[in-house]
Amino acid sequence: MVEPGGGPVLAMRGISKRFGATRALDGVSLDLAPGEVHALVGENGAGKSTLIKVMTGIHAPDEGTVEIDGERVTLRNAADAQARGIAAIYQEPLIFPDLSVAENVFIGHRDQGRVVRWRRMNDEARAILARLDVHLDPRMPASGLPVAAQQAVEIAKAISLDVRVLIMDEPTAALSAHEVERLFRQVRRLRDEGVAVLFISHRLDEVFEIADRISVFRDGRHVATHARDDVTRARLIAEMVGREQADFYARTEHHAADVVLRVIDLGRTGRFSGVSFEVRKGEVLGLAGLVGAGRTDVALALFGIAPAEAGTIELGGRPVRITSPRQAMELGLAYLSEDRRHVGLSLVQSVTSNITLPALGRYTSKLGLVDRGEERLAAEEFRGRLGIRTTGLNQPVGLLSGGNQQKTMLAKWLNTEPTVLILDEPTRGIDVGAKADVHHLVDDLARAGVAIVLISSDLPEVLAMSDRVLVMREGEQTGLFDRAEATQERVMTAAVGET
Amino acid sequence: MSTPAPVWIRPERIKELSLVGVIAVVVVIFGFLVDDYYSGQFFNRITTSVVITAVLAVAQTMVVVTRNIDLSVGSIVGVSAYLTGQYAAAHPDASPVLAIGLALGIGALLGAVNGLLVAYARVPAIIVTLGTLAIYRSWLVSHAEARTITADSLPSWVVDLPTRTVVSVGSLDVRAVFFVVIVIVALLAVGMQRLRWGRRLYAIGSNPEAAAQAGLPTRRLVFGAFVACGALSGLAGFLFLARFGTITVVAGQGLELDSVAAAVVGGVSVLGGSGTLVGALLGAVLIDVLDQSLVRVPQVSEFWRNAILGALILAAVIADVAIGRRFRRRWSAEARPHTRVTEDEPADQAPALEASDA
Amino acid sequence: MPEWTRERTWEVLLALILVGTVVYNASRSPVYLDIDNFVNLFRLSIEKVIVAVIMTFVIINGEIDLSVASVMAFSACVLGAAYDAGVPFPLAILLALVASAAAGFLQGQVIARTGISSLVVTLAGLIGFRGAARILLEDRSVGAFPQWFTDLGREDLLGPLPFALVLFIVFIVVAGVVLHRSAFGREVFVIGDNAEVARYSGIDVARTKVVLFTTSALVAGVAGVLFAARLGSVRANIAEGFELDIITMVLLGGVSIFGGSGTMLGVALAIGIVLNLRNGLGLANVEANTQTGVIGALLIVSVMVQNLLDRLPLRRREAEA
Asked: Residue B325 — pLDDT band, cuts 50, 70, 90?
């Protein structure tokens, strides 16, 4: 082990970062010592991704300082951070599929000569990879590699750049148990050579295996930092979730009614398997779990975007095969996606036009022309009902604030008058007032008889709004709780797995 | 993970070898269909006719690997051929090196204009080169004022160039021009493989996002690719001049399509990032062999050429996509849009990371 | 449609340029403002302008169709070859149109189902269909069409307006209505802005694309027939290079090359500018080829200016709730 001594290699002090209405980081301080593996845990939305972006120079903090070796620095951009020895590896590796492994490792190095010395480059790449306990032919094109190998290539790239701080964001998400073991050996080796590794993961068992210190983030704040031996899983979970239940969620009691949607043993290779649940008329089924648990995949299967390969779906008692969104809509389903900017809304089109898009047929005359008056009426109605704030319904929706965009997207799907409404992270990235509006709306809808599947990573929200909670982890169903028995700890434990 | 294989054949080599194989098959088939097919004359005709397309295919490849296209190469050939012809006619005692240098220089200049617009003004390559195709040609027309360069006005070294032979094996002549072009392509191919510059062109086409993030000077590199393409097109213009002697204002029209066809058939992916110059050369050879062979089959009229060419391109592209799909699906973010969002970043966020552009 | 500052600005700009072009040309040539001259403008370019109208849809949809000129020639050659082979003329016209539609359908299917970019597929089409045209007619030219056919191209229908011009006016008005007022037009815009959003909203993206490319080729086919009527004969090499003018008309009209935005009014104005430009240059004895060069420059400049405008903060963010 490298002798601990001197100050931290990288220190973040009092970092704050806002995005519009949301405060992603609030006065966060964290330091990384050379030769340690420092794990960072926290729920979705706790601020981990934003911290990485500040560390790698992608975002500049609004407040606070970044220090390297005790000196204040300003990271101007990603290349600047890289030049200072800070590198990050993400879940989806950035690889050049047509170039060889060795080229992937060494491309972009500034100190290389004009001429590529293939033999030397291959040998060096092979050597670095061997140190990572990975034996690849460096001449292979990178396109054929499995994810674990690509990750190794990225680590090799970082090593070749003399990285001092290596940030790994959910590195084990796509790995098998065997590959995880190998990754850990690589990480340990890096640590022994003096690299500071920031290891971000949801998997607490892995965290306990690899980390020297563990820090917890919650709601954009740094909650605590512990030495690995000084803390228990339970304590971590409590710190990750512990907050008061606000009681501005107004959920009226739900009475049992007919089953509208039943899913039996649903699966899609590589994404999820063995998922079974029912949703009744007027019921809210919460779908809890961490990023990557497979909840959105289940939604996409129900909505026909990425159809299921195994299992059955029954709507109103009849089995159906859903192969397209249009078909899903005709069967009474609606899906509000989590990515409103990329698949949820057409940013260029007006608010009105976005709202009426899936149900356009209703406003179209026999000739195929759209009745704009009818459209406007519908949009007006939703504007009032949902409180969408915009200077005009003709405004391109890309100009609206996040909360109002979300409301527009909600209006869009409510307009299809669904029987089953699947909401994927409906309150992500919107302000408190808008959140409350959405919750009231969900409650209204449920009372009116709509069956709702609520996918959310906001635990208090899930617990307050749901009549029952289904928890997923790694593509599998790990818990199904009634409202009465669902607590934050129980749900979080099911979401992160048993020890 | 696998242990390293003892013998490593790069996938590009496999593509190239299979092209050689296809050419061989074509030759054998036509050997049965056509009398006196295997003659030295035929070989000579092919080696003479292929050089221009071969150089253009190589030029096009340099741009295509960066995920761009250059439709103006035909016009560059015309301008270069004409101006070089004018110069040679006016200065019959000038050194050949100067004349060839002029052709290269003109091409490089025209390519630089393309490069500026694509790389720095960020106008899509298809638009830029569609426009410069017209602009360069129209400039040539107004400059030429309907005068034609005629073969007899040219110095003899130009006119005689296509027939000069390096070595003869029986009735097979290895023409000097053919030989030089092979050497140039070989040198460039080595350059693309061994020079950092060449490898980075592939990187840009392979994953532009990763290239930006790795800090590659993408704009400068793309600009350079267009300049190189232009220079090579200028050279092709010189070869055009030497071969035909008579240059009208429509010289070179349509050659851009041949260059794209040859590159695509030669295994250069239109998605960028893969394909070799040697492959493009072989693609040009294959097309030319097919072309010349079909001419000799009396039942098939010469007008089938374009239809077959179009079908060939489509087939080559579909094959390329079908194979490439399997590999690329994992890497492209587009394949899984629903996982693109980061967990805690709301909509109102700063724009995506800015690349450092040298 | 949302009221876009940018689109309105562009239309106003175009209107000014159009007026400027007309005024300038009129000042240089006394016959310019004569109604016959204007009619002639359209008559000579009718094939390009109707294809420009359909190309507007294709580009707004986020695609491009480089094969239109070749399909035009292909259609004309089908007409010529069929007629030459003794097929009754109306049937020959029908054959030409069916063949064009089939060409577009083929391209559309490849683009929609395989995900290969429309640039590549229609580039192959550009080469291939020109080749098919050459196979049909080889080096020959076919003419001697029935009198009523060639009269259609030359004589007037409605007052001073020939058949072709009436056709164009009707076509562009209908197309404008379809683009801006119909559900189909809305879908075309949304797909061009973001095909994934369209898909997630239940739109059948593949079907829309196939329809667009089929229609595009069909209109090109009609243009080919019109060309035959106007010229009185057909050859395999007609309409070479037309795609430049057509694409310029659309992009100059403010349609974004990246898809998702544009107006038919803008394209109409741009058509006016391009036609007047060519006409004025022609009257000033500028060579046809040089005119083409000017059009090429116009194309590049249009996109460059659009890029610039995109970067300007012409819109400001909504105030917070």
From this structure: low
Are A370 and C182 within 8 A, CB to CB?
Answer: yes
User: Bigger pLDDT: A22 or A397?
Assistant: A397
DSSP codes, A242-305: --PPPTT----------EEEEEEEEEETTTEEEEEEEEETT-EEEEEE-TTSSHHHHHHHHTTS
The CA–CA distances, whole Å, from A296 to A46, A270, A283, B271 equal: 20, 13, 19, 30
CATH number at B11-326: 1.10.3470
Partners of B305 on chain C (C-beta within 8 Å) are: 131, 134
The 3-class secondary structure across A47-95, one letter per residue, is: CHHHHHHHHCCCCCCCEEEEEECCEEECCCCHHHHHHCCEEEECCCCCC
Q: Helix or strand or coil: residue B172?
A: strand
**What value does the mean pLDDT take over residues C52-58?**
97
Say what the pLDDT of residue A159 is: 86
Find the CB nearest B310 among C127, C247, C297.
Answer: C127
pLDDT mean over B316-340 = 50
- The domain defined by C6-310 folds into ABC transporter involved in vitamin B12 uptake, BtuC (1.10.3470)
Residue A189 has pLDDT above 60, yes or no: yes
B172 lies within 8 A of chain C by CB? no
Sorted by sequence, the CB contacts under 8 Å of residue C221 that are 6+ apart come out as: C71, C72, C74, C75, C96, C97, C99, C100, C101, C103
Average pLDDT along chain B: 82
ipTM of the complex model = 0.87
pLDDT average, residue stretch A460-466: 88
Distance from CA of A296 to the nearest CA of B (A): 8
- In DSSP notation, C15-84 reads HHHHHHHHHHHHHH-TTTTSHHHHHHHHHHHHHHHHHHHHHHHHHHTT---TTHHHHHHHHHHHHHHHHH
Q: Which residue has the higher pLDDT, A439 or B313?
A: A439
List the single residue in B134, B141, B314 with the smallest CB-CB distance to C124.
B314
Chain CA centroid to CA B134, Å: 19
Using alpha carbons, list the distances in angstroms from residue A130 to A122, A125, A126, C224.
Answer: 12, 8, 6, 65
Q: List the domain boundaries for chain C.
A: 6-310
Chain B residue numbers touching C110 (CB-CB < 8 A): 314, 318
Strand A22-32 and strand A10-19: the pairing is antiparallel
Please indicate if any CB of chain C lies within 8 Å of the CB of B308: yes
Cα dist from B165 to A474, B97, B174, whole Å: 70, 19, 6
The segment with the largest mean pLDDT, out of B169-178, C80-89, C211-220, is C211-220
pLDDT of residue B340: 31
The string of pLDDT tens digits covering residues C163-177 is 778 888 999 999 999
Q: Please give the interface size between B and C, counted as residue pairs whose CB atoms are below 8 Å apart.
A: 132
Q: Is the pLDDT of residue A151 over 80?
A: yes
Nearest residue to A251 via CA among A441, A20, A18: A441
Contact assessment for residue B357 and residue B216, using Cβ atoms and an 8 Å cutoff: no
**pLDDT grade for B177, boundaries at 50, 70 and 90:** confident
Domain boundaries, chain B: 11-326
| Beta pairing, strands B165-169 & B172-175 | antiparallel
In angstroms, what is the C-alpha Rg of chain B?
A: 22
Q: Which chains touch B (3 or more CB pairs under 8 A)?
A: A, C
Q: Is A457 on the interface with C (CB under 8 A)?
A: no
- Give the residue from C65, C126, C127 with the most B CB atoms within 10 Å of its CB, the best one to mutate: C127
- Tens of pLDDT, residues C209-246: 999 999 999 999 999 999 998 888 899 889 988 999 99
**Cα-based angle B340, B342, B348 (whole degrees, multiple of 5):** 105
